[in-house]
Design goal:
Elements (H helix, E strand, L loop, with lengths): L3 E5 L4 E6 L2 H15 L9 E5 H10 L10 H15 L5 H18 L3 H34 L7
Length: 151
């Protein structure tokens, strides 16, 4: 099977690639069950090939973020570098994250917006753990030995 992707238009998420048709159909059913609750008719989950997905994302830049397009990162990184100078402790970091979320929620105050913001913070947390914390822990386990053995 050619690799396919599921595109959830309601939650602006991309799932895949799928090379196993049964797995894709199982995930499609689960995604549709949740996202279609918010629609009166029709569906908002599309099945796309890699080429179709690339064309879709070219036409709708910024629609979805598995990752930010490289060209768009520079401006955001500059703002973040300026902001980092003011964050000296965990409380200030917490305030910055809270303030950003609060301001974004005020722009479109509804459950979907707030739920989406919480979801994105959770994804950022998981990405930080996956890319930064977990490799650090693996390094320390090699240096110092593992502390937990389940037999």
């Amino acid at each position: 099977m050619e690799a396919k992707f599921l595109v959830d238009l309601y939650d602006k998420k991309i799932f895949g690639p799928y090379r196993n048709k049964k797995r894709m159909e199982k995930d499609l059913k689960s995604i549709k069950k949740v996202s279609d609750m918010f629609l009166e008719e029709g569906t908002n989950v599309l099945i796309m090939t890699d080429e179709m997905l690339r064309e879709f994302l070219r036409n709708f830049k910024g629609w979805c973020m598995p990752y930010i397009i490289k060209e768009n990162r520079h401006e955001i990184d500059e703002c973040l570098n300026d902001l980092k100078m003011y964050i000296e402790n965990p409380g200030e970091l917490c305030y910055v994250v809270y303030k950003l979320l609060n301001d974004l929620a005020k722009e479109n105050k509804c459950f979907k917006t707030m739920s989406s913001l919480i979801s994105e913070v959770e994804c950022a947390k998981l990405e930080f753990y996956r890319r930064v914390v977990s490799p650090y822990e693996d390094e320390k386990i090699k240096e110092n030995g593992d502390v937990l053995w389940i037999e």
